[in-house]
Amino acid sequence: MNGKERILKTLKHEPVDRVAWVPFAGVHAGSLIGKNATDMLTDGEALFDGLMQVHKLYQPDGLPVVFDLQVEAEILGCEMHWADFSPPSVKTHPLADTQDMLCDCLQPSADKGRLPMILDVMRQVKVAVGAETALYGLICGPFTLASHLRGNELFMDLILEAEYVQNLMAYTTATALKMVDLYAEAGMDVIAVVDPLVSQISPDHFTDACHTAFKTIFDYVRVKGLASSFFVCGNATRQLEVMCLTGPDSISIDENVNMKAAKEITDKFNITIGGNIPLTTLMLHGTQQENMKYVVNMLDSLGHDNLIIAPGCDMPYHVPAMNAIGAAQAVRETDATREMVKHYEAPKMDIEVILPDYQNLKKPLVEVFTLDSATCAACTYMMEAMNVAGEHFGSTIDLIEYKFTEKVNIARCIKMGVTNLPCVYINGELKWSSIIPSRDELFGVIDGMLS
């Protein structure tokens, strides 16, 4: 059984010889060939070469071709901020100050934006490894795309402008369907709808604003004869059941979600689950043996039906290749790996962190804990909301971001008791965890502390 067969059988809930492995390498592939993130997402030759190196080193059963949730947004008029070690982030929101819909003529087509390059690479990869490896086409989910277009106003719209949100979601759903067509024609086997902002809203808001959009997309993917995945970063625990009700073939989650508990939910719906190797504490900052032991322990604690092992989200650029190789080995040769690491003890983190004297602060201190607001869409919009507050309240408050990609901030999270990202503490007290507050709610809390 080759990797492609293993993935497709897993997604069809059929028996397989072992658990499948999908490394979400993204711009990390550039680190394997000496290219930066911008090269990987704008240069077809670099993207293809990086993917071939990922295929060679990590021996995936499924291979995502490009991990960039801004492809559609760029076509629809969002300006990008480019970086060397992460995908671009959205800098401007075309609908920030208007509720008018964008023109349908802006919708994606094979000749717009970076799609000519991406589609060409997809076809090349299909020829090179597509017979043995399932190829994943990742598209930006309709709610995150709506956030790219509208900005943080969308979270207020959910409360006050339900009809407008429905219209905007219909527009972004149409965008998604066009992307499905393009990626299907380019030979993708699995369409992964990646929507990190879903983790930042309530299940009720998801049901009211998002259910129809996602069900429409997954039904359409099925009609096209392809498999589907619903990929949500962040703490999507409370959304899992409503996500299952939209009918994807699989759901992918990150380290914010308890994998065993999540699988109990997805198994009830006979939906495959994928995940959730921690990105920073383990893949970026851990040892190869830690990665191997984590994967072995995960496999030993879960039923192997309806299961795909994968990083929790897009792998950071600087993940050591040996860590991903170790994870791959643990999936492919679990018994041998278990024996290799059975006596291994991870080194303790020896970083001293001094917390502020929260009881004697001169002004409110807003601390934002993120994976990295430059790379994580949910973190981007959480930080954007806090920056709006920073601009509004000015020097009357202090505002700081702690990125989980830095070891000292991992130690800070441990000392603070932070369990989910992104989250916001004010004066040392948790205020919002994996849910982005509306502007009125945020300002109201801070005003209350200033009065």
Trace the largest sheet across and list its strands. 1-10-9-8-7-6-5-2
Strand content: 5-15%
Global outline: globular
**Integer average pLDDT:** 95
CA radius of gyration is 21 Å
Q: How many domain units?
A: 2
Question: What's a quick, concise take on this entry?
Answer:
With 451 residues, the chain is of the alpha/beta class. It is built from 20 helices and 14 strands. The protein has helices spanning 3-11, 28-33, 37-42, 44-58, 71-75, 115-129, 142-150, 153-160, 162-185, 203-209, 211-223, 240-244, 259-268, 279-284, 288-301, 321-332, 334-341, 377-393, 407-416, 439-450; strands at 20-21, 62-64, 80-81, 89-90, 134-140, 190-194, 227-231, 250-252, 272-277, 307-311, 365-370, 398-403, 423-426, 429-433.
Q: How would you explain this protein's 3D organization?
A:
The structure is a single chain. By secondary structure, this protein is α/β, with parallel strands linked by helices. It folds into two domains: 3-341, TIM Barrel (Alpha-Beta Barrel), CATH 3.20.20.210; 358-450, Glutaredoxin (3-Layer(aba) Sandwich), CATH 3.40.30. The chain contains 20 helices and 14 strands. The strands form three sheets. An eight-stranded parallel beta sheet has the order 1-10-9-8-7-6-5-2, with helices on both faces. A four-stranded mixed beta sheet has the order 12-11-13-14, sandwiched between helices. It has a two-stranded antiparallel sheet with strand order 3-4. Helix 18 (377-393) links the parallel strand 11 (365-370) and strand 12. The radius of gyration is 21 Å and the shape is globular. The N and C termini lie far apart (66 Å).
